[in-house]
Amino acid sequence: MRNNEEESAGAILCNRQEETQMIYLDNAATTWPKPEETIKAMEECIRNAGANPGRGGHKMSLSAGRIIFETREAIARLFNAGDPARVVFTGNATESLNLALKGILKPGDHVITSSMEHNAVARPLYVLKNRGVEVTEVPCSPQGTLDPGDIARAVKRNTKAVAVVHASNVTGAIIPVEEIGKITRERGIYFIVDAAQTAGLLDIDVEKMNIDILAFTGHKSLYGPQGTGGLYIGSGVLLEPLIQGGTGSKSESLEQPEDLPDKFESGTPNTPGIAGLGAGIRFINSKGQAWIRRHEQGLVARFLDGLEQMKKIEIYGPKDPALQVPVVSINVKGQDSSEIAFILDKVFDIACRSGLHCAPMAHKTMGTLERGTVRFSFSVFNTEAEVDRTLEALERTVAELP
Amino acid sequence: MRNNEEESAGAILCNRQEETQMIYLDNAATTWPKPEETIKAMEECIRNAGANPGRGGHKMSLSAGRIIFETREAIARLFNAGDPARVVFTGNATESLNLALKGILKPGDHVITSSMEHNAVARPLYVLKNRGVEVTEVPCSPQGTLDPGDIARAVKRNTKAVAVVHASNVTGAIIPVEEIGKITRERGIYFIVDAAQTAGLLDIDVEKMNIDILAFTGHKSLYGPQGTGGLYIGSGVLLEPLIQGGTGSKSESLEQPEDLPDKFESGTPNTPGIAGLGAGIRFINSKGQAWIRRHEQGLVARFLDGLEQMKKIEIYGPKDPALQVPVVSINVKGQDSSEIAFILDKVFDIACRSGLHCAPMAHKTMGTLERGTVRFSFSVFNTEAEVDRTLEALERTVAELP
Fold first, then answer.
1. Cβ contact A50–B39 (<8 Å)
2. Can you tell me the distance from the alpha carbon of A356 to that of A337, in angstroms, rounded to the nearest whole number?
3. What is the second-level CATH architecture of the domain A36-287?
4. CA gap B338, A384 in Å, rounded
5. Please, what CATH class does the domain formed by A2-25+288-400 belong to?
6. pTM, full prediction
7. Least CB-CB distance to A227: which of B122, B243, B273?
8. Of all helices (H) and strands (E), which one includes residue B353?
């Protein structure tokens, strides 16, 4: 396939490689570049606080522990989570979501989810279904929007939790979590939110939104490094850990400690990563989350405007910067999504992503399960000039393709 | 407690703080410093290959994927693991051991372990015991040595696995894994080895030693950063994943892919950490693993010689550099282990660890469950001069304590 694409791209665009700086539009996969602060904090941590946190009483171990606590505090403040101990670190949002879903749902329980979920929710639920958990998938519109009334109507006597993505990683569509939170609170159901695409970008207030578990990743809109993530666990949530082991606490006992965060943080944490995540959050706070959101909405608006003027382009999602995160999925009529992404990368040095984006349920909802989409996603570091160059590149690609 | 210690240390040593460089002897918790190569590789990865590996076809995503593959290959070579796909990355050895134990052992199965295990093995086994897995704990000597014959004698009809630590994190005692591997291979039992204290330091050949699952951490003797670890999974091993989610592969399916390593690597990996781990292994290879081992044995020999001349010191473990990793546990007669560690840190700027070291089973075996031990552990960066200064500091501390 790659060979065919290479030939095709070659035939069409004469193997010419534009001499320009790379444009990175794959920020929904991971943000790049990272703020200088993030990189510096990691190096500083390894050099000067490189001991094992919480596993020794010496000065350097305490310094490492302090870095982790400060990041925990910054996250608690960001999500209005109250007690920082309720913020638990994991390796990524997928681990957080597995912990949440498997730690709560037992055979006989019923869970409600949406038809726009990433495999980080869909695959664990598939496993749980085979273990006797009942799963209802509430359909979203092809744009990826969800009617909270459909959630309310799906509630049954054995419904234990609602688990939904805060914003789709394919269409960018934002799910009305605040309205869903009202429904779950009223019915006494746990509310689990996958904030992989929204943490650091949209306002998230776990109190106001009645979120019981918020799963986040550190390396996207929180501007931390890969290898970081975590979850907020509400005070009323009874959750079993996925992993037991050394916690540096209650070491005399073979039983996992019940105290948070230790109950869910066995083994040595990713201290330099967490240092970088802390710096990422300080970076967001210094720019202002609202400013970042406005900047990215401006880029999405400009990109959507340009796309709408191109005949052969199909745009997915809400097509409204206010209703979506800075993720735009498209297809070129009659073309394979991977061929378009390949040409953009090879000829124009524009990095985007094609295919199914680890979310087959979402693609089924959108009607793109066969061909996938070409996805462009922006960060605070992207510029209007980059949007314009990308539109121009798309225009030229579309014009020259058969 | 801390306050009392502070007073006591103050009273004895007159609050004098020696003006010296810190001596870091807590390398069994995490090695420090890290090689320059490790830090540079992480920064280089974030700056120049900071995309999401395996989740896009663009050039930077491929660069990130290449870094991960190269580290996988380096680890496979180090352990003679054959196919690099059989090396799977996790966040730490604890996660690896949970995956191994919970992925293999089902109710009704029998597992044999030792009485020197870390909580990374002991706590998951405690959970499995409550789920109906039968656990036999083969007693070790108070020095932490184990007779392989005791393993053979513990095998029953329903024995599914033997899970042991390769070297104790408390006494440093090396367990004869090659002999145990012969027993498990003969009986058709899975052999799971916790190499947290040995990977990168002792020769490990999974073929020769008949190891089915080798769990390792990246941030100790492999000289990578915290947040890295993994496991080797032998080709005959039927293992269920602990975590399901996006793998960047077979995205159309809700079923977790069966191919390795994807089956066990859901969600975005710690790419910069894995880049650092790869550099750590290159550092080991450039120094020579045998040279590092000899250097550290020399430090242990010098330290043991010095300790043996001090009257009030009790030394645990084999007291033979050939039979242990560079970990030495002691106590000062009549003194609390945490008080000694506190004085060493505060007065002499020597970082070591006191207490139970996340291994209550080991302390029970050693008879130190009440008071713990003071643990000193060395890395390639420690020197003979540091050993001498530590001995001198201990001598002065012991002399001045009541």
1. no
2. 10
3. 3-Layer(aba) Sandwich (3.40)
4. 59
5. alpha beta
6. 0.95
7. B273
8. strand B353-355
